[in-house]
Amino acid sequence: MLIYPNDIAPEKLPEITIISALSVADAVEKAVSKEAGDVRIKWPNDVLLNQKKLSGILTELCFLPNGEKYVVVGIGVNVFQKSFPDEISETATSLLIETKASEGSFSKKEIIEDIWEGFSYYYKIFQKTGDLSGMKEKYESRLINTGKTVKVLDPKGEYEAKALGIDERGRLMIEKDDGISFIDSGEVSIRGILGYV
Question: Are 25 and 39 in contact (CB under 8 A)?
């Protein structure tokens, strides 16, 4: 996905990534039946189906020679994979695996269109508010980490904290013994205490 937000600052990229994750989660939920499982997000942007990674997102701000900016959002959704290598088979999945459906049950075109439709909807809200306040509640309703103890993988040293939700900038709000603080996705990542989630 390519967008030309000339007014966007580099520090806003994590917010674009969160908008993208929410769009993918909505599209996946539309593609599968409720019986197929729960669509959640692992902060900041891994979309999960039945607690396994179904989609990943990378966002990059690029500059043209004339100084114009554009954002490239790379979205990968596992749709038709029937298996994964042993080293990720416990944490990765596809629509085909989770729904036990036939390949003809899904349309990549429809999934892409639904992602774009969702992104356009959320991005308009983002442009109006200037932050994630207009979709914070919706994102948090999908956030699998909320209320859980997570392992924060910080270059300065790993530690454990309780995930509480996000703020309007998409930072993860965490609670440690010394109080509440916020972490940026560009600086750290998180894992579950016993594994990926």
Answer: yes
> Does the pTM of the predicted model rise above 0.70?
yes
The two three-digit tokens of residue 152, written as one number: 């924060």
What's the pLDDT tens digit per position in 77-126? 999 999 999 999 999 999 999 988 777 788 899 999 999 999 999 999 99
Whole-angstrom distance, CA of residue 85 vs CA of residue 78 = 14
Helix and strand element counts for the chain (H, E):
4, 10
Q: Which tens digit of pLDDT belongs to each residue from 50-84?
A: 999 999 999 888 888 887 888 889 999 999 999 99
Asked if residue 148 and residue 80 are part of one domain, the reply reads no
Residue 132 domain boundaries? 2-140
Query: And the tokens for 175?
Result: 């609670």
Same domain assignment for residues 9 and 105: yes
The answer to whether residues 50 and 134 belong to one domain is yes
User: Cβ distance 147 to 173 under 8 Å?
Assistant: no
Nearest CA to 13 out of 3, 24, 27, 28 is that of: 3
N-to-C CA span, the chain: 27
Give SS3 for 68. coil
